[in-house]
Amino acid sequence: MIRPTGIKLARAFGDAPAAPAGGARPTGWGRGCGFSGVLAVCATSLSADNAADTVAVPSGQPLDLIEVLADETPGEMWARFRFLAPDVARDLGRIDVEIAHQDMEHLCHGFAMDYLARHQIDAARIVISLSDRAVPFGEPDPQATQFFEIYRPEDGHCIWEPY
């Protein structure tokens, strides 16, 4: 079950890009995989959504929606959907980067696009992230395992954006 906790506004300090040039992954890791180490941010609550949403993902892993962030720092509106996904844990997890990619693509098409339409949010990019533990946005946690992908919403579809 995915339980939304609300929409927040993310503000980063400085003019750094959302993802560094060449991607945000350490050498030796697959596409979209990395550990938290982003800019410090402050988040302001915009609204709450207490309705429970259930989304089945291809892997069958349990997911909880940690938060939805509306981020204008990259110079355009990015909607960030942050999910708690304990099965991506590096030591005990059963979800690797390829399976996580399939789940994130499904979440973009089957959850994020509907969420944006329901809340009338016009986003230039959608970021889907899966983390094995709740990590506050922008705070580093070297022990956390996180997967993320960026999509461009176009004609009702999610187009994967390589970074």
Automatic annotation (TrEMBL):
- A Pfam family that this protein carries is DUF6497
Q: What is this protein called?
A: Acetolactate synthase
Source organism (scientific name): Pseudooceanicola lipolyticus
